[in-house]
Amino acid sequence: MSIIALAPRWLSALVIGICVVFAGAPTVGAQQQEEDEYQGLPEGEGREEVAAYCGACHSLGLVSQQKLPRHRWEDLLVWMNEKQGMPKLPPEDEKIVLDYLTEHLGPPKTRRRF
């Protein structure tokens, strides 16, 4: 007779439940690892490019706390190119990065009151 057959039913159910919970654990761990990789950057088109380009020199937390409008992000890129020796981004990547920064890391959107 097997040990499972001798165990009470509740114990068998508990063991099976624990196995099911831990079977999903790698998925939770992988999701946490992805979030750590992006250091809180919101999901969206351009997140990978921002993480790669900006994260090469800065913590992504520093980038995400700026909350700048597009023209200021543009000025900041020019300043980093001219004064800090950052290579210019390819034009298509620059647009993707600026679109992402403006949409997800721009100033808070305010609603007008009438």
Q: Your description of this structure?
A:
With 114 residues, the protein is an all-alpha fold. It contains 7 helices and no strands. The protein has helices at residues 3-6, 9-23, 25-38, 47-55, 60-64, 70-84, 91-105. 9% of the residues are buried.
- Total helices: the number is 7
Mean pLDDT, as a whole number? Answer: 81
How does the helix and strand content classify structurally? mainly alpha
Distance between the termini: 79 Å
For the secondary structure, the number of strands is 0
In helices, the fraction of residues equals 55-70%
Oligomeric state of the chains in view:
single chain
Shape: elongated
Characterize the biggest β-sheet.
Answer: none
Strand content: under 5%
Q: Which characteristics define this entry?
A:
114 residues; mainly alpha; 68% helix
What's the topology here?
Elements: H1 3-6, H2 9-23, H3 25-38, H4 47-55, H5 60-64, H6 70-84, H7 91-105
What's the short version?
The chain is mostly helical. Helix content is 68%, strand content 0%.
